[in-house]
Write a structure and sequence with these properties.
The protein is of the alpha/beta class and 644 residues long. It has three domains: 6-313, Rossmann fold (3-Layer(aba) Sandwich); 339-485, Isoleucyl-tRNA Synthetase, Domain 1, CATH 1.10.730; 540-643, Beta Barrel (OB fold (Dihydrolipoamide Acetyltransferase, E2P)), CATH 2.40.50. It is 40% helix and 20% strand. A hairpin with a 2-residue loop joins strand 18 (549-560) and strand 19. The model is unreliable at 513-536 (pLDDT under 50). The structure holds 5'-O-[(L-methionyl)-sulphamoyl]adenosine. 5'-O-[(L-methionyl)-sulphamoyl]adenosine is lined by residues 12-15, 23-24, 26-27, 52, 232-233, 235, 260-261, 263-264, 292-293, 299-301.
């Protein structure tokens, strides 16, 4: 978390040799979520993104299409720019490396380093990889191929310009060792130190025009253009007007945080930092490396042809649901698998079942019994006090977790609060209470609405539009500019609520297990569920989900007097305890079942058996000899885990 009131966040600038995919869109969505959280915590933010337009890959992509590199860049850069509002990304600036404001800074930096002797010319012999656009030494090669791309390399001798990167190695190492927050997560810092241990070489920062024309000409030698990485990295300061009228630079650079994927950690934490040291510019505050979205075992990337289109996903599920999935299902720093089926599951469980359902239940009851107006809060009882305490704990926890880059945990802890609110409604049954004690029912519903208002603000950085819809529908409350102004009890009693349509409709699972639109064409929204076909055994997914299957811990188990086939179980479902009878006495010794896990149908209508109310049914199988076996989860799961 920023502690000094300002936060400058950057994404890498995206190569325009390809259109955006989920991997690149994730980076923008994550930077946006971090920026929005910082604003919520009361920090001013500046958020930069853009496109990386020079170099061989881009030149080749344009040549392949038979158009000029500039025309190609104009078109592709626009595809990245247009995606941002569609993903609800709130960037302040978008820089293109073909813009003059950028080129001016690159030329000035090159000239400064040339004048200071940190850039020098030398004949160089090395292995050149077109795919990685760089030279490798003999020992870098893996089986004679480029270690980055696995592609062929060719031996080239040519005169080039070099940046004295090696000179700054010790200074960089000292900075990394002294600043634990500099490279995050911390295990990435060890990776960079390991890289430095191998000995830093100088960096070739020029390309002869004879080989590559598409780049920024060196100011001191017109036969060469600048190596694309040297050019691209400078975007982080050129966009702030470094070297010119640099108010923006003075304001934001001391608070800079670079977000990037782990594949470009070295270029940022070694190339970029040593360039800054040579220029005499302070180092950024932090470099944050996230993992990759995979498809199966492989990184999602154009070259592997396994990309998923963010626009395709957004058109089917909506940008905020896509953002929710990307933020909830990736632990920053680790890799994660992208699957549409997982996205649907996340939508249906967290958003439709938990959050959407709570909002719908509360709004329905307020409409029905309180004329659609926020009821009176009344005096809090024990249960309400517990919920108030949970809400204020969340107001403290979320900034801590986000500061530690644990966005997934911040979301999960907020969802746990939603689940507690749902349980509170179920336990207190306001629809019954209202008939005898309307004030008590009012207190319950006020608590739920106020809880929902808290949730809506805490999740605003993740789902800005959906959460605005939620808090706007909850009745009148003061505008929240920062988390400090989110206070329990500020929801105005008597103000009208208006939660029209369902906030989070359930989604149908993809037709095939791994169906995802691979190209950026929009997919038609899925139709609402239809009735099962006649004379068919097929049921809709929603019908299946109507049966609630949960994992339960067996707390106790014993015989039932007068019923020699039955066992009576006391089961722990995490949030409640259930009594269940099951015909297992001939198959299990009761004491052998205590401490094990079973699967329970938890929403069956209770039935009286031998005078005892059985609150659910255990799942079992029967073998050929008539032996009955309890079904159990394949791996231990927390009590109450829903099976779907
Ligand atoms: N142009 C360079 C960055 C220059 S920054 C001065 C570049 N561009 S890129 O378009 O190839 O990648 C941009 C970002 O997207 C990188 O941080 C990269 O890690 C990220 N991703 C690309 N594919 C990804 C996944 N499959 N998953 C997550 N992010 C990945 O590198």
């Amino acid at each position: 978390m920023s502690v000094d009131g300002r936060y400058y966040i950057t994404t890498p600038i995206y190569y325009v040799n390809d259109r955006p995919h989920i991997g690149t869109a994730y980076c923008s969505a994550l930077a946006d979520t971090l920026a929005r959280f910082q604003r919520l915590f009361g920090n001013e933010t500046y958020f930069l993104t853009g496109t990386d337009e020079h170099g061989q890959k881009v030149e080749k992509a344009a040549l392949d299409r038979g158009i000029s590199p500039q025309a190609h860049c104009d078109e592709l850069s626009e595809a990245f720019r247009e995606l941002l509002p569609q993903m609800h990304v709130s960037n302040d600036d978008f820089i293109r490396t073909t813009e003059e404001r950028h080129k001016v800074v690159v030329r000035a930096a090159l000239q400064q380093l040339f004048d200071s002797g940190d850039i020098y010319a030398e004949d160089y012999e090395g292995w050149y990889s077109t795919a990685a656009e760089r030279f490798w030494t003999e020992k870098d090669l893996v089986n004679g191929k480029c270690p980055d791309s696995g592609q062929d390399v060719e031996k080239i001798v040519e005169r080039n310009y070099f940046f004295r990167m090696s000179k700054y190695s010790d200074q960089l190492r000292a900075h990394i060792e002294a600043n634990a927050e500099f490279i995050r997560p911390p295990h990435r810092a060890n990776e960079v130190l390991g890289f430095l241990d191998k000995g830093l070489q100088d960096l070739c920062i020029s390309r002869p025009k004879a080989r590559l024309a598409w780049g920024i000409e060196l100011p001191f030698d017109t036969d060469y253009v600048t190596y694309v990485w040297f050019d691209a990295l400078l975007n982080y300061i050129s966009a702030l007007g470094y070297g010119g009228d640099d108010d923006l630079f003075q304001t934001w650079w001391p608070h800079s945080n670079h977000l990037l994927g782990k594949d470009i950690l070295t270029t940022h934490s070694v190339y970029w930092t040593t360039i800054l040291l040579a220029l005499g510019v302070p180092l950024p505050k932090s470099i944050i490396a996230h993992g990759w979205w995979l498809r199966g075992e492989a990184k999602m990337s154009k070259s592997l042809g396994n990309v998923v289109s963010p626009l395709g996903m957004k058109d089917v599920y909506g940008a905020d649901v896509l953002r929710y999935f990307l933020m909830r299902d990736m632990v920053i720093g680790l890799d994660s698998d992208f699957s549409e089926a997982m996205l649907v599951r996340r939508n249906n469980s967290d958003l439709a079942n938990d959050l959407g359902n709570l909002a719908r239940r509360a709004a329905g009851l307020v409409d029905r019994y309180f004329d659609g107006k926020v009821p009176t809060e009344g005096a809090a009882g024990e249960e309400e006090r517990v919920l108030h305490e949970m809400a204020s704990a969340l107001r403290r926890r979320v900034p801590e977790l986000v500061g530690d880059l644990k966005i997934h945990s911040a979301i999960e802890e907020t969802l746990q609060f939603v689940r507690s609110l749902n349980k509170y409604v179920t336990d207190t049954a306001p629809f019954k209470v209202v008939k005898t004690d309307p004030a008590a029912a009012g207190r319950i519903l006020y608590t739920v609405l106020e809880g929902l208002r808290h949730v809506s603000w805490l999740l605003t950085p993740v789902m800005p539009m959906k959460m605005a819809e939620l808090h706007e529908g909850l009745g009148t409350s003061p505008a929240i500019t920062t988390l400090a102004s989110l206070q329990w009890g500020d929801l105005e009693e008597g103000s009208a609520i208006s939660m029209g349509k369902g906030l989070f409709p359930r989604a149908e699972p993809p037709e095939e297990a791994e169906e995802t639109p691979a190209e950026p064409q929009a997919k038609a929204p899925k139709k609402a569920k239809s009735k099962p076909k006649k004379d068919s055994d097929v049921i809709e997914f929603d019908d299946f989900l109507a049966v609630q299957l949960v994992v339960a811990d067996v707390k106790s188990c014993g015989p039932v007097e007068g019923a020699d086939k039955l066992l009576i179980f006391e089961l722990d479902l995490g949030t409640e305890t259930r009594t269940v009878l099951s015909g297992l006495a001939k198959h299990y010794a009761p004491e052998s079942l205590v401490g094990t896990q079973v699967v329970l149908v938890s929403n069956l209508k209770p039935r009286k058996i031998f005078g005892v109310e059985s609150q659910g049914m255990l799942l079992t199988t029967e073998d050929a000899e008539g032996g009955v076996h309890l079904l159990r989860p394949g791996a231990p799961a927390p009590a109450g885990t829903r099976i779907q």
